[in-house]
User: Fold Por secretion system C-terminal sorting domain-containing protein from Roseivirga pacifica.
Amino acid sequence: MNKRKRLILPPLVVLGLVVFAIVHHFNGPSFYTKSPLKLSFAAPEEREEFEHEEGTESENPRKRFLYEFNKLKDPKTGLIPEGIRTKELHYIETSFRETLPLPSKANGVGLPGAANLEQMTASAFYNRGPFNVGGRTRALAFDINNENILLAGGISGGVWRSTNQGESWTRASKLDQHPAVSAIIQDQRDGHTNEWYYATGERSGNSANIESSSFYRGNGIYKSVDNGVTWSLISATAQPGTSGTDVVRNFGSFTLVDELAIDFSNAAGTEIYAAGLGKIIRSTDGFQTFNTVLGANNEISNMADVVVSSTGKVFATIGNQFDNGGAGQEGVFMSDDGISWTEITPDTGFDEELRMELSIDPQNEDFVWLLGGDKIMRYTVSTDTWTNRTSGLGFSTNVRSGYNPQGGYDMYVKVHPDNSETVFVGGTNMLRSTNAFSNSLERDQIAGYGNTSNGFYPNHHPDQHVLTFLNSNSSGALSGSDGGVHITSDILADDGTQFPVTWQSLNNGYLTTQFYHVSLNRWNLRDPILFGGLQDNGTYLTDSEASNATWSFIDGGDGANTAYTYSGIFTSVQNGRIIRTPIVDNNVDFNNFFNVSPIVDSEEREENFLFINPYTYNPVRPDQFFVAAREKVFYTNDVRENPSEGEWSEITSTALNGSADQITAFGISVDSEEEVLFFGTDSGQVFKLTDLQSLSGNVSASKVGSLDLPTGYVTGIAVNPKDGDHVIVTYSNYGIVSIWESTDGGDNWSSISGNLEENPDGSGAGPSIRSVEIMPDGNGGSYYFVGTSVGLFMTQTLDGDNTIWEQQGADVIGNVVVSSIAIRPIEGRVVAATHGNGVFQGNYDVGLNPEIFCAVENGGQEFVLSANGSLDANTPFAYQWIKNGEPIDGANNSELTVTEGGNYQVRLFISQTESALSNTVFVNLDSEAPVLNSIARLLPLEEETSASSVLFELTFSENVINVDVSDFEVGGDVSGTIAEVTELSSSTYLVDVSNIGGAGLLDLNLSSAMNITDEAGNDLSTAIVSEETYTVVDVVGPTAAISRLSPANEITNQAEVTFQVAFNEPVVNVTLDDFELSIGSVAANLSAINEVTAGRIFSIEVTEIEEDGLIDLDILITGDIEDASGNGFAGTITSEETYTIENIITSIEEDPSYVGDVLAGPNPSTGIFELTFPSYFSGDFSLVIVGLNGQKVTDLDIESHVAGEAVEVDITNSPDGVYMLRAEKNGKFASVKLLKQSR
Assistant:
């Protein structure tokens, strides 16, 4: 619809924002700042308890995998391309160089003071944390010579080093070195302790860039010779011809490494082992050379483990959940030299294990422990016997208590260095047994979840991956989990309480968190609040811009999508559980929260929502809220009412019904004539819903761009804040074109992927696109940002496939996955959330870009419009509100209460510098729909008529606009055409109905496409108060128009032509005998008649034309053609076209390039034709189908055709009519005429 923006909201209480005046004036206006939010945080266990009560499961690696896999798979193959991570990194490294749009600033905080406003520049990015939250850590060790030196590896965040036992950390591996750290080890032999190794590639759990089986592929082993300060790739371990981040096309020996082990008893060389991909690899020279010593013939689907005793005895496991092949090796093995192996697998109990973990008892190396998915056993080397200790393990299907390794995602077994009876097992929780798991009586849960409570264990985190004991204090231990790194000084503590062991977090700048989503306040300058959902770690918030600020826990589970509006903070966990925490009187109390999920039951949520489920708000009126679901969008017009299940309305579409599509992304206009919602799905469909301000009840959205856009997973939609018809859609799948632009509101789309695709068709090593934002640059243009699997990119110039995207913050953000982007246009702030290294912030030169961010009806007769605020005491704002283009006297606050309708904008001032005008909001205090009071007969006045045209007069209840012929249709028993609409006044219109055919009732109806509104933008009611109709007495015979059909040109050399005869009303008894060629026409034959449109349009074929001259078709009046009233055709021809034959080709066979006819059946058809070609057309050839107007309908390249086989073509989406098909091969052709009839 073509309507102005308006806001109509139900009555509600306006939440005030505290405003303080600052003594600073120029030319009269007062300058203001706003006070920051006051935050009160809930205890973590309270939010975790709520999560548990709602039935939300803990982090689920399998569900996470399926979610990520569907985002990344190539739609053509259903698989993630082989080695795509390293391919895309190589492509970026060789194709891109960072180009910042303007010089950088050191402080990374954008807007300067008012005096220097004209000098605003882009800032360098800096990391904002979370300083105190760590990400998943599978690799962790301390320096045996100095326990203050710790090295830890984030699974997608690289190697980090601390020199003060975790009080602070520095990234040791470079941004271009592989960040998927799966194991790390120090060479503890004398003279070698400066040598460290780290392995890459995670088999289970990573969602930064999973492969077809959740693989985050690595490429080799890295080594440090300076005690972990710097690292270099051992080139022999990378795949041939590659470096650590070069193209990897196949699995190599070190693509996925589960464990590293060194034989410290061997002083010669460096005897080091790597376990992974169902194999054990051994090297005696630090991986300069190596051999597969176990599982050389195995498949690559299972995991492996390896440990070495102090005397050099080697133990290893290879999983058996997946088939290792006929010559494969699997189970548990032992070797005295690492070369020759003896299988020692227990006879029973370990029949189907993806992963089995080992631990040698440091006190008694005759004991070796084996942990499986739900079993634990101890092996005695000297007697070659196994003892089953599973009864004391406490396996549990409840991840919150007991042992649960989540399918091998999190598991280890460790024996205390001083006590063989004290054994630790890691799964979701850490368990300690002081009787070697002989029974469960002396088993305690000492980390992970809180066991009997629903929250986390204090100062720890679920999902255990690594445990190591300090040499200086064997009771001291380091723990690596999904929550980073933790330490305890007494892992043996047992005071009889629920939490016997005290842990301390060492996540102090250990920047390895994996964000799914991030949010900031879109409107308020210098609002420091930033929060987001983290994989494995819930949702955290900071209200400080310092990079070392402490972030506060505000929600649990796998942190998911978030939102920040003037009235609330929204968080969510996996499978769409959404929590709203209200903002009341500028206070946020996270103890006061509401579940606003449209579906409450956890099983139903899992069925209807994505693992990480999107939602959004209308940026013009943020109380309107939208939640993605399967085949629909839930919405509410006032989320402040905390709607629960059953209190949400639905947006659906016929194109979604039965599709099983999940809604995956939203985009909403900020400045357009309408507020428009776009949303996309996991199959690539994009939908549009207009007039959001009038949303009520269940509604249907329209599909857009179906012919242009690819099949794939829509990850982002951005609507230009300055142009609501300008939309960008991004896709995350590999193998397709990823970034698309529409400049006409979604009707047509074109690629703007540019240099982010290796090949124009989307194939190759172009990255996956995860997010998109558009930010005005203050000069009439925009910054366009995309978050990708290899970093953040920006352009200011969109030029189709020639678009040049420039990498941002390459030396800070690097090539990590940017999963989410948040912007604040008023100051040019950009926040990039990464999946591996936290969040980064920068600012760009934008001048001042004001937005009216909220319009709230107050008491039903008022609106409160709100403009950007400033939280910076050095940068206060002054305001000038504008109505219908004119300043409003005295309206100089950040809020404006409106009691009159009109178009409203705001202009901001900093010192003596003024901004551009904001977006326009049309305020409508008239919420009543106009009504069509009457449809009256005007000409003739009498009800009964035999006229072929009539005139109605329409009277509306008020002035209306957008009234034209498309708003009406003829109803009743007769046919007719809406010929003209004439405006007598703004509330009175005349409607002319002509070409009336048939007899009976004629009434005038509103069409389904009716677009009539009042001047306030309210849609016309479909009810009609009073209506008069005509009764048509049909005494007029039908008329006809004769036109050329094929060919379309008058002059032709063809020996066959086709006419089209169109009657003005339905007729019957039309046969070929009713036609003849006029006197003066050359000799020819009327050979066929086809009914194109039932009773109305016919095609007449004229063949056997043998000479030049006139071909003129006549309709006989002696026939029995008549209309439905029995009126016969009297010979009235309203228009007529003829053919002139010149230089005739009497037979197409005379054309030496013609090789025969194409057979088509059925013909006519509703649009699908089965074609059989002459035998000449075997192999490759092309065909084209054109309409009689010469417009191409389709063209196809047929490859490897077998003569005689049918080829199907489909033109069901084309209008009814006659089409010409022509097949060509090597200059020869064949053809056939196709007739499409829908009915």
